Amino acid sequence: MSFSQHNSILTLKHLQESAETIYLERKGRATKHSKVANEIIGMLNANGGTIVYGLHDNGTIEDLNQLAVKELDHYRKIVNDLIEPPAIVELEEISLDSGALIFVYHINHESERVFMRKDNEAVYLRVADSNKGPLKREEVKKLEYNCHIRHYEGELRPDFDSSSLRKTVCDYYREKMNYEGSFEDLAIKRNLAARKGDQVIYNNAAILLFSEDPSQYIPNALVRYIRYEGTESQSGSRFNVVKDERMEGAIPRLIEILDRFIHASLRDYYYLDLKTGRFQMIPEFPKEAWLEGIVNALCHRSYNLQGNSVYIKHYDDRMEISNSGPLPAQVTVENIQSERYSRNPRIARVLSEMGYVRELNEGVPRIFSAMSDFTLEQPVYRDENDTVTLTLKNKVTNHKETIHADTLSNIESNWDSLSPNQRHLVSHLFDVCEAKVADLALEIGISTQATRTNLNSLIDLDIIERMSDKMRDKNALYRFKNK
């Protein structure tokens, strides 16, 4: 049961046992009030969040009643005494059933201002599960620029008709937030709407997250999937688009639609398990990579740049996922695995609370890890012309000419009797399709004569074949037997 009047999802168990994230920080009783101020500033400049003072990192309760009243007052007046400009931070003083006292700081993110220490002008930024700073001057300038871009998702839209809200998505969010009141009240609490007189006015973030058709209010708030035949886009008589689909709807619904659609659109290819010698059929891209890439694109797109939708371009050898807007704040293509900054913090937080984003600090590393687990090339990010593009490469084009079923069967049935060098040859040919003796010898690390001996053994087993009519041909190619 929640004990917070500010955030219904917060329970003591949640605060004690949840991993610290971009949204949650625990601070023990010995933490100086100036240090707590730095953490609050970091969250104000990032996505907002919750700081619990009186809980150790491991979740142990440290009763604040043991502090002197005058000392405790420093923590009550942190925002007024140490932070500028004036910030929206609500302090809940919660007395637990045990009698212990803890402080819970509820921090609303700000879209237009950069916050700093009042005494030394130091600026901090919450990144993943820790605080970064003081920031350098150039980092502060970039943060100021991104605050201007962030303002768009918080703009109120009096023209939005609340009857356009998708009830199933709204109800699902209320359920995930353990909120018993109306969706209107929850939206106001989560900075997705504001009450003006007797009306509730929703903002752009709410429209993107909960509207039946966001593109009615935000042009090109959609995803476009294009499938090309080949490895390059062609035009005119060589036009090679074989599928062009537009998908629209609230972001959570879009994620579910794309999950099913992309899964059905992917091809399978064989993967050789070197431990067992068995072939496994796996999709051309791991789901954790492409789905995470799509969620990131929807979450971090610059929706104020309304000319471009999110694009998914699917070629024979790769998938490209792109969204409008340059990489935000301190994030670059070089540090994208370690740095975090959400361009749309309201959207990011709701998607996290709904379970579509496990943790913001895991997303990009998960893409890299998933591709590595599939023995695929590392993902590539590009930041060009106000567009960020993620490229995932597959191995399907390496197997355009399907390996004959008899050859696959021969490999599996003879695997246990193959030498380590022969297994290495089979594995390498599976990756490169065909190769010369000299290249294979270099890959295996043995002489060309020893390589030929091993290749001849594989020929005798009807696993590979030599592609040359000449008896002595150093350029002869070896490949899997195809018939």
Question: Which tags fit this structure?
Answer:
single chain, 483 residues, alpha+beta, Methyltransferase, Cobalt-precorrin-4 Transmethylase, Domain 2, Heat Shock Protein 90, 4 domains, 6-stranded mixed beta sheet
Give an overview of the whole structure.
The protein has helices at residues 12-17, 33-44, 69-76, 78-82, 137-150, 167-176, 183-189, 204-210, 251-265, 287-300, 345-354, 363-373, 405-414, 420-432, 437-444, 448-460, and strands at 24-27, 49-53, 83-84, 89-95, 101-107, 116-117, 125-127, 130-132, 193-196, 199-202, 222-228, 241-248, 268-273, 278-283, 310-314, 318-324, 380-384, 387-393, 434-436, 464-467, 477-480. The chain is α+β, with helices and mostly antiparallel strands and 483 residues long. The protein folds into 4 domains: 12-135, Methyltransferase, Cobalt-precorrin-4 Transmethylase, Domain 2 (2-Layer Sandwich); 162-214, no CATH class; 222-398, Heat Shock Protein 90; 401-480, Arc Repressor Mutant, subunit A (Orthogonal Bundle). Strands 12-11-15-16-18-17 form a 6-stranded mixed sheet, covered by helices on one side. It has a 4-stranded mixed sheet with strand order 1-2-5-4, covered by helices on one side. It has a 3-stranded antiparallel sheet with strand order 19-21-20. The longest helix is centred in the middle third of the chain and has 15 residues, at 251-265. The model has no long low-confidence stretch (mean pLDDT 89).
